[in-house]
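Give me structure tokens for this 256-residue protein.
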Amino acid sequence: MNLRLVANTAYDSILALAYPQACAVCGGGVESRALGVACAKCWNRTEIFTGDETICWKCGLPSLGSVCEAKREEVRCRRCDADHFFAARACGSYEGALRATILALKHSPNVSAHLLDLLVETRRRPPLNQSTRIIPVPLHPEREKVRGFNQAATIGSALSVACRLPFDDVSLIRLRHTERHRAGMDGKDRRATVADAFQVSYPALVAGERILLVDDVFTTGATASSCAKVLVTAGASSVFVLTIARPLRNYEHRKH
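Here you go.
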């Protein structure tokens, strides 16, 4: 038996007894610090993608249909045809434990062990496993100063260590303080808010690289596409997108 695992399990048990933490979803107790802000029960109730779903190969939107393994790369939703990234994937649906984790991450720069495991596993699947360099979606300096950190950079830094990939938080910058995406904004409106909002400041660092662009949530793909456009223009070979979660408004199938 792994002694480190035994030690961590014992430590978690002591922490749970001495400093009980309420689950951010249901209010119950979180059994292990590795789970972050949600309990095991709420994690089990959250839609986590396994890689076996039939999805749009480009934007990752799950489909109600099914195709054979040989044709999976041909599936397209057609709504992402104009986007500049090569492929986008998320760890799961923006609900339950993942939603609570994302909201907590905006206030505290901490990536739990469980979340990191999900990110690493998602990055290992094709085609994201081709990526060679990690770049976070940048915040405007004014917003980052107010928040104190960039949550996308927190995600990317942790993933960089786990995957042993270069982490680059200097090449891509946000030029202007764009309007926050409001509920009800459609894809066209969201794209308008981020048009020409990004710039590559060090083209030599991204030239020829297969970039893994990381962020917390993939909604319409507007921000990811805008970032991908300038990265490819600067010489990146391709841009993949990895986020913690994405809303699934049009995906009715659930495991529960």
